[in-house]
Design goal:
six-stranded antiparallel barrel, 5 helices, alpha+beta, four-stranded antiparallel sheet, Elongation Factor Tu (Ef-tu), domain 3
Amino acid sequence: MAELAFQETDTIKRVEFPRPEQSDLTARRKKLFIALGGALAAATVGYWLLADGGTVSTDNAYVNADTAQVTPLVSGPVAWVGVGNTQVVKRGDVLFRLDDTDARLAVARAEAEWQRVRRQFGQAVATSGALGSQVAAGQADIGRAQAQVGIASAALAKARIDLDRRAGVAGSGAVSGEELTMVRNAYAAAEGNLAQARAGLSQAIAARNAASGQLAANDALIAGSNVDTSPDVAAAKAKLDQARVDLARTVVRAPIDGVVTNRQLQVGQRLAAGTPVMTIVPVRAAYVEANFKEGQLQRVREGQPVTLTSDIYGSKVTYHGRVVGFSGGTGSAFSLIPAQNATGNWIKVVQRVPVRIALDPRELAAHPLRVGLSMEAEIDVSGKE
């Protein structure tokens, strides 16, 4: 035992205090550290289970919706506008009208052209019948010309015989010179008639062939089709249909249910096709886009329940939704000027990933939201419904 000694004086006496052994002190310290470590671990696990283990939350969340941008599909001056900003519209409601004068004239022209082409097809059908008759007549003309050639050939043969007979006795004086001349002229005339008959036959054949060619060409235009399926008629009908569609498009209707916003047109303004003039926000189909930190998404999955509150209503109104998907990249990846991290002075910044959350339509109808409103979202990642 160690002793604590003091100088003996008249009033002070030597006193001895007990000192613990070094091994006992080390053991006590070890037990104290073990107890403190266990308490700290238990507190950490308890906090994780009770406060953060089953949910992840963020206040970086906003209401969003798949808006519909209204644009005219044809150009023209605005004749009438029937809606204004903040107005609620239903799908099919008339938003505005364009002056349809030009469109009506285009329909009239297209309809006249369609009627003309239909009549032209009927004329082509009638022409085929006429050309068929011409081919038949040409064939008859060929037969007649062939008969003429036969007659002329027989007449020439007879004239040759008469000429040969008289020429043979002309030296004896049995045939006068005048008679011999007449026979020779008759022979020449017979030759001419034969040549004319042969030319007539060639002409008849050529006329028949021309009529046959025209008939074949005309039949090629109408073969296998009628007045409704003819290519020319179908093309004219398509132009008429397009003109009617353009006329119908002068009346612009709401494509979805929603609230009109960002209206940018006035009566008398001339609009070009494709010019954005207003936006319709489907407030009853709104969803929430919550931006969670990348470290919070380890256990987040599609279909998990979400509890949300909105700043506009406060904590007294609670929305219930579900995770429906994750963005294809972080918010900064699709910014106008993406971050360039391949530099020497790079500093790590915690990234956020947009998570899409669908809302209960009944709760949304009872307490409507507007695009851009702030929300607080808490996702249950415990796996319990």
